[in-house]
Amino acid sequence: MDGARASARFGPLLAGLTAVAVCLGAWQAIAALGLVSNLIAPPPSAIAASFPALIAEEGLFPRFAQTFAEAFIAAGLAVVVGTPFGWWLHAKRWAGRAYESWVATFAAAPLVLLYPLFLVILGRNAGTIIAMSFLTAMPAVVLKTKEGLDGIRPVLVNVGRSFGLGESQLFWKILLPASVPTICNGVRLGLIYALISVVGIEFLINFGGLGELIDDLAQRWETAMMYGAISFVVLTSMCFFYLTEKLERWIRPG
Amino acid sequence: MRKLVACSIAIILGAVPLARAETLKLAIPQKGAWDTSFSVYGDRQGFFKEQGLELEITYTEGGATTETAVISGSVDVAVATGTLGIVSAYTKSAPVRIISAESTGAADLYYYAKAGTGIKSIKDLKGKSIGFSAPGSSSNLALLTLLHENGVTDAKVVPAGAAPGTYTQVMSGQLDAGWAPVPFGLQDIKDGKIVVIGQANDSPDVRNETIRVNVVNLDSLKKNRDAIVRFMKAYYKSYQWAYSDPKAIDYLATDNNISHDLAASAVKDFLKKEANDPYRISGIQRVLDEALAAKRIPTAMKEDDVKGMFDIVWKP
User: Fold this and answer.
1) Which residue of A has its CA nearest to B294?
2) Is 0.90 surpassed by the pTM of this model?
């Protein structure tokens, strides 16, 4: 029984790690056999060996902190603005019918292409990166919030009303807990979109954290270090996932 | 019967050049710029066809985009790519060779301020902000040299991106000065909206440094050296033609949507012939020093260390 439990708990983790190890091993072998240029795709061992130089000479941690902070602020703003907006689209049916499709259209727009305009308006600074990333992240939060609230079974609301709950109690006791999983999916998506946008714009405008570092390393043909920096973008994404899981458990324990 | 034979001979003779034409893939940055367009002009004039070459041109954003294209073998030849970037790639064993210079000095680069701000020269930039394109670019390196030579130590140099975006930032007051490559901004200079405060070539060091080169993928060179030789023959002819036939000015004007007069003054006042001489290669030690300062190479190097980077396949 204990073995079955351990298998259920650690099996997926082991399977995931094995897949990553197999991919890295295949990559190492392909590079060692010279099937791809090491200049374009250096082996994982070379990437791992580049980390000390990345940390000591390229200021990896301050850049990681900057990218993390910019993405966090942009996504945080998207949550602060997007969640009430999504609730409003749910609560006012006419608003939902009028604006949902526009928000979805906005979500599909390649906003990153507008960076020259934002540079002119806000200048070459973190404000441009955060503003653009906020706009990129917000639609996912809005749409998922509305979807989560729309998807609540009417019977739950009716039971609440039969117990005489007021509108505020209904929201905090029933609507919010029932819609939290979907809303958190929206927050996760918002964080991912914000992170992609932050790194992309840092890369494009040569300003700030990991994106600028990746561009600089690419220009210098330090490809092993460049992939090392990219792996830190993945690490940032993993940090965000961890944080949103914690947030979800805090809002909806059990 | 005679007609049939004559037709057959004509068809066969006509087919010979087509059968011989080889395709060379080219990467060209800064679409429409004067010196980067010599191959384009030559192609329009038929100089490459004379050499049995068909050009397949891909336009790039410049910098690493052009370098990656030629290193990966996506293109055979990269025109007008930065010497600094190629030095960096070569020292990391990238399969590239320089086959000629493209630009010595940066005759096309100038720095300007909005008219009426009181900034008239590089010396006036003390405590002011000025934009260049991107770190490590020729507009960046030339600007640092000019500031140093003029004793300006406290100017704020800002990576401002491409010329149109820089122009907007200067005109809106976000930057005190900016950079541009001709013919961009020439009309504004004529109209008195902006004033030139310096040219990259004002510095003798910049003027004598080969900042852009034409490079070839090493595999392409090994497999098809003859085609690369013919490419250089046609390229050289195109360069000579561009400075002798007014039709080239028409091409420049049309490609950049500017008047013929403006295009002519750009070439006359800025884009000197000697700057684009494919066989004038100089200032390589300075390139290596800049490469070291910009962390493009790991250790200090001398010209002899990078001799293998050059393979001048043909000389006139």
Assistant:
1) A220
2) no
